[in-house]
Specification:
Blueprint: E1 9-12, E2 21-26, E3 29-35, H1 40-53, E4 58-62, H2 68-71, H3 74-80, E5 83-88, H4 96-107, E6 112-114, E7 120-123, E8 129-134, E9 150-155, E10 158-162, H5 168-176, E11 187-189, H6 200-206, E12 210-212
Parallel strand pairs: 3-4, 4-5, 5-6, 10-11, 11-12
Antiparallel strand pairs: 1-2, 2-3, 7-8, 8-9, 9-10
């Protein structure tokens, strides 16, 4: 048990499948990592989670990569929990999904913030929660999955790594040449909904105590 009054970092995974969404809250600040699809069932499950948490706004909507099962749901979230900014790690004209999301943000007055490998986002008045963007751009053979922006979140002595949909190319690259600060994390959000086998060096670099997976 935490002593009463201890600031707690909350991470909630709505019950979406074959897609990703996570809600992170620290104090009054709220961040959403990806937002599933346009599928009505998935949209309802995200809204149920947001409502159950008592969340009425999203300060930062972070997109790991512009595939429909990660980016399409943000516009529906904005209807009941207004989004303060859309944070993206891909060019605004990367593909049709990204263009659609950017247009929606512009049409609805949502600022767009660009991040890249090594950038650090924070939560808390004194930056108590630090979130490092880890992203590797590959050759033309790498698709958006392998170029996903991962987030290594640290609060106190604990860490959790969100891996987007990184697959074979990226996992091999990170395993052979990990970031300078490493990938070690207590909790691993398994990439791509469990659809790919983890490369052993990649998993060994993370060395998690707990793995969370959204079902395929």
């Amino acid at each position: 048990k935490f002593p009463e009054g201890t600031p707690v970092l909350e991470i909630v995974f709505p019950r979406v499948y074959s897609s990703d969404c996570a809600i992170i809250r620290f104090g009054d600040e709220v961040m959403m990592i990806d937002a599933s699809t346009k599928n009505k069932t998935m949209r309802n499950r995200i809204q149920t989670a947001v409502t159950a948490m008592g969340v009425d706004h999203i300060d930062v909507a972070f997109n790991s990569h512009p595939h429909d099962d990660h980016i399409d749901g943000f516009q529906f979230v904005n209807e009941y929990a207004p989004i303060g900014q859309l944070t993206i790690a891909f060019p605004e004209d990367y593909d049709g999904r990204m263009k659609e999301a950017v247009k929606y943000a512009n049409d609805n007055g949502i600022p767009i913030v660009h991040v890249q490998d090594g950038d650090v986002l924070t939560m808390g008045a004194n930056g108590e929660v630090a979130m490092t963007v880890i992203q590797r751009w590959g050759t033309k053979s790498w698709d958006a999955n392998d170029q996903s922006a991962m987030l290594l979140i640290r609060y106190g002595e604990r860490t959790i790594l969100f891996t987007g949909d990184v697959e074979n190319h990226a996992q091999r690259s990170f395993g052979e040449n990990p970031p300078e600060d490493g990938l070690k994390a207590d909790i691993l959000k398994y990439p791509h909904h469990g659809q790919v086998k983890l490369h052993d060096p990649f998993l060994e670099a993370i060395d998690p105590e707990l793995v969370f997976m959204n079902g395929a």
